[in-house]
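Ops channel
N.P.: pipeline sanity check, posting one input/output pair.
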């Protein structure tokens, strides 16, 4: 029997989805229902369902962020679930969902759209057969696009106003503020409630969220290699792969290695 996980923070909408799925797909078993992104990741990894229904806006961690974390943490050899996002945005704002590996359902639920989604998911699962399907590049590319669209903007598919480019990072340290030129920064790395700002010789902490910093940085100069890590492209010395297949970046001027998530690994390929 095909199993699904529903992650939706509004109980009435979760109830409605479960009822409509029971009508449109009687053979589908709802393995779990959760109301936040962190629980969605935990339960999905524990249960390994075939289908995920993730609300985009959830407390703690968005559906997009939860899906990205799952794509990175999903065990090798286990088929990655068919992924369906729930969104309250209108048809024009969700054009990015229409194409490839990720489907969507508009809230409030529309029966015809749900039936179309069920048919697409059933066809996808049937095409997979019994063979394990890894997290494919189409899914990863779609997630990267949606995450980039959502960062700093309120509505996917609607561009946010361009932010002024950062020239300095103002890092508080005790009773003073250090003015760190962005040209000297090698790494921005999210760490709990702070972002670590690393230069060749120093480390600074700032409270500005990484997504806000990203909106003010040149993405040709700073490459995202993990959902919580940006590195200066010109400082990359090499990319190494472990026996388990995990990639790490080594930088000129820093002794440590920085993990590359599966979501962003495609940008490092030999020519």
């Amino acid at each position: 029997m095909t199993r699904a996980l529903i992650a939706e923070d509004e109980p009435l909408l979760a109830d409605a989805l479960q009822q409509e799925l029971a009508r449109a797909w009687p053979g589908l078993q709802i393995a779990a229902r959760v109301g936040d992104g962190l629980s969605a990741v935990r339960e999905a990894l524990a249960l390994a369902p075939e289908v995920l229904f993730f609300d985009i806006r959830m407390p703690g961690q968005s559906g997009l962020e939860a899906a990205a974390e799952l794509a990175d943490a999903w065990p090798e050899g286990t088929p990655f679930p068919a992924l369906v996002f729930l969104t309250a945005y209108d048809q024009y704002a969700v054009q990015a969902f229409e194409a490839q590996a990720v489907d969507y359902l508009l809230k409030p639920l529309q029966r015809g759209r749900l039936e179309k989604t069920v048919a697409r998911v059933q066809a996808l699962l049937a095409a997979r057969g019994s063979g394990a399907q890894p997290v494919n590049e189409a899914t990863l590319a779609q997630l990267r696009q949606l995450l980039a669209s959502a960062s700093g903007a309120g509505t996917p598919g609607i561009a946010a106003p361009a932010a002024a480019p950062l020239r300095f990072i103002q890092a508080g340290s005790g009773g003073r503020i250090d003015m760190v030129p962005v040209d000297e920064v090698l790494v921005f790395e999210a760490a709990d409630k702070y972002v670590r700002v690393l230069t060749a010789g120093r480390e600074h902490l700032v409270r500005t969220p990484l997504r806000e910093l990203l909106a003010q940085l040149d993405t040709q100069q700073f490459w995202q290699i993990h959902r919580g890590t940006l590195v200066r492209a010109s400082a990359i010395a090499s990319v190494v792969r472990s026996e388990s297949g995990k990639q790490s970046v080594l930088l000129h001027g820093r002794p440590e290695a920085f993990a590359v998530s599966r979501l962003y690994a495609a940008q490092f390929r030999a020519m």
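N.P.: looks fine end to end. Residues 168-267 form a domain with the OB fold (Dihydrolipoamide Acetyltransferase, E2P) fold (CATH 2.40.50.1020).
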